[in-house]
Design brief:
single chain, 284 residues, alpha+beta, Alpha-Beta Plaits, four-stranded antiparallel sheet, 4 strands, elongated
């Protein structure tokens, strides 16, 4: 991290993501027996098979084993913050178990419970992935397999998640097993959707008869840069300066409102971008 402020932001977002994931596990997955793959799914099953063991404790055991394997096969440097994430997630689940015990689901609507059981961990995982970290667990297995085998990691993890869901179906009933399968697929889509929404920017192109005003507004008011080039209108044959810039949603609205005031005839296109990488945005 280049500054204490950036590190504080990184630490806050990392822990927020881990806490949301833990909340989804404790508040919705565990009471409904939604063992939707991964270490949390195995922990829910273990807590059922071994009376007296809670999900947080089972997570500590499983993540401890996986972290040890990761250190052996990948090294401490490669594991990095994954070591912290693995144990912090387990700690958050254990903390929630102590301060807010769950003896039954919040509602009798299983589908509604499933939505939150998927959405909270998906949002949490997206935040963690977005800061360049991981939640540990099966991600460690994926890292090991990626280094030592040519196996297609995504497919292998999906098969293992579905196997855990099938195990849950045998233990808790077919209906629960089917909900687990549905949740497994839904989470994959939701994580991608959350990541895209976190990284979404607006690619804005402006053609205006007041180019200096547009440039000054982008540079001085929005504190962004732009690419400027000269183009010729096919209909008018006139040369025009064209500005292309990348903005947040709010900045795009401010630019549009500014153009409405100073040049109502300006031509403006706004395109969504799921990810922008480079100076001023996310690092490569």
């Amino acid at each position: 991290m280049s500054s204490p402020g950036e590190f504080a932001k990184y630490a806050f977002l990392l822990n927020l993501g881990l806490f949301l994931t833990a909340a989804g596990i404790h508040l919705f997955k565990t009471p409904n027996h939604f063992a939707m793959g991964g270490t949390s799914g195995v922990s829910i099953i273990m807590a059922t098979l071994w009376p007296g063991m809670n999900v947080g404790g089972a997570l500590f055991i499983i993540n401890g084993i996986l972290v040890a394997l990761g250190i052996i096969f990948l090294g401490v440097k490669t594991m990095g913050v994954t070591i912290y994430s693995s144990f912090a997630l387990s700690a958050f689940v254990s903390l929630l178990e102590k301060i807010y015990p769950m003896s039954a689901p919040f509602t009798n609507d299983t589908l509604l419970e499933l939505c939150f059981a998927v959405a909270l961990p998906a949002a949490g995982s997206a935040i963690v992935f977005n800061v360049g970290a991981s939640t540990g667990g099966t991600d460690i297995v994926a890292m090991i397999l990626s280094k030592y085998t040519s196996m297609e990691i995504g497919r292998a993890l999906l098969i293992s998640d579905l196997a855990i869901a099938a195990w849950a179906g045998g233990l808790y009933g077919i209906a629960t097993g089917l909900y687990c399968v549905l949740g497994t697929f839904a989470k994959a889509f939701m994580v991608d959707s959350f990541i895209e929404s976190l990284n979404q920017r607006k690619v804005v192109t402006v053609i205006s008869s007041h180019p200096e005003d547009v440039k000054n507004f982008i540079l001085e008011k929005l504190h962004r840069s732009a690419t400027v080039y000269t183009a010729e209108g096919a209909y008018t044959g006139q040369s025009e300066q064209v500005f292309t810039t990348v903005l947040t949603r709010r900045q795009a609205v401010l630019l549009r409102n500014h153009l409405r005031r100073v040049d109502p005839k300006a031509f403006l296109t706004i395109v969504n971008s799921s990810e922008i990488v480079g100076k001023g945005f996310r690092a490569l």
